[in-house]
């Protein structure tokens, strides 16, 4: 033996140990080369499952980012883009969960977020509600805007009275109620038409009103035909609320809050749950009242 070997402590590894030979044997016995990628799945079904779970993960993150942008008011005037993006992401989320295998692996939103360490409270709230914040929260008609319109109408009426006085006295160089158009030419402005423009009455798109009315009829017919499940009713009611929002731009009307509550209730139903007979009758009653409130708002 060499002198230095006798000086090594008893727990020190021997330079002539078998660790290297064991590693070489394991490498030689390996079924795969060590430079090849180890897949996460063995079959196409497993691949589709993991890809769907990754899509759900990315959808939750994307919704949370959009919600933060909405809360921080960094979207500016792009609220329509926010609304369309949230609706599209929620639809994708629901479509993925229609697969039985994915739903059994996903289980529930809270468990999925805990499992993959996702901290997205805004996204979880939005998914539970099932509609964008721009549709969920109605806007009350501003009294300041009404006052501004009334002041504008009053000013215009004063202008008309002054014009009448000038016409009667022959002053104002014969101009009277002439106003310059876009080309700079003086044209006669009809008082009745101007009064209508400044009366504060909103203009509604005939096409949007027709779509909203058709959506009302579709949902009510579906309830009468005993549609009870989330899969049957939630898309129809979501389209109805969205079409109403296009007409009224989120303004409140009688019965709107009931529609939002039903939309949230349907969104939180399990896949095997359905509305009872009493709930269906109540839903149909609220739909009828909401339709009357919507029609009254248009008058």
Automatic annotation (TrEMBL):
One GO cellular component, as annotated: late endosome membrane
Localization annotation: Late endosome membrane
Domain VPS28 N-terminal: 27-137
Disordered: region residues: 142-186
Polar residues bias locations: 142-160
Ranges of biased composition (kind: Low complexity): 170-184
UniProt-listed Gene3D superfamilies: 1.20.120.1130, 1.20.1440.200
InterPro entries reported for this sequence: ESCRT_assembly_dom, Vps28, VPS28_C, VPS28_C_sf, VPS28_N, VPS28_N_sf
PANTHER family membership: VACUOLAR PROTEIN SORTING 28, ISOFORM 2 VPS28, VACUOLAR PROTEIN SORTING-ASSOCIATED PROTEIN 28 HOMOLOG
Identification of the protein by name: Unnamed protein product
Originating organism: Candida boidinii
């Amino acid at each position: 033996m060499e002198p230095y070997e006798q000086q090594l402590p008893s727990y020190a590894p021997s330079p002539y140990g078998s660790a290297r030979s064991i590693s070489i044997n394991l490498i030689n016995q390996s079924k795969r080369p060590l430079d090849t990628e180890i897949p996460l799945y063995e079959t196409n079904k497993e691949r589709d499952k993991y890809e769907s779970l990754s899509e759900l993960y990315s959808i939750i993150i994307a919704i949370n980012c959009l919600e933060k942008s909405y809360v921080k008011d960094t979207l500016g005037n792009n609220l329509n883009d926010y609304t369309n993006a949230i609706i599209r992401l929620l639809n994708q989320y629901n479509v993925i969960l229609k697969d039985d295998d994915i739903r059994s692996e996903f289980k529930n939103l809270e468990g999925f977020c805990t499992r993959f360490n996702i901290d997205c409270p805004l996204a979880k709230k939005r998914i539970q509600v099932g509609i964008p914040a721009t549709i969920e929260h109605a806007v009350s008609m501003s009294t300041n805007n009404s006052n501004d319109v009334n002041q504008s109408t009053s000013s215009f009426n004063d202008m008309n009275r002054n014009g009448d006085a000038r016409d009667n006295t022959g002053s104002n160089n014969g101009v009277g109620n002439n106003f310059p158009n876009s080309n700079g030419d003086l044209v006669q402005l009809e008082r009745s038409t101007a009064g209508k423009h400044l009366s504060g009455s909103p203009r509604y798109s005939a096409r949007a009103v027709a779509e909203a009315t058709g959506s009302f009829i579709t949902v009510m017919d579906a309830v009468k035909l005993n549609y009870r499940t989330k899969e049957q009713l939630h898309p129809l009611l979501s389209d109805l609320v969205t079409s109403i929002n296009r007409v009224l731009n989120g303004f409140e009307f009688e019965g709107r809050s009931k529609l939002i509550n039903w939309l949230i209730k349907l969104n939180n139903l399990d896949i095997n749950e359905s509305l009872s007979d009493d709930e269906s009758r109540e839903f149909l009653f609220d739909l009828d009242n909401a339709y009357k409130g919507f029609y009254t708002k248009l008058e």
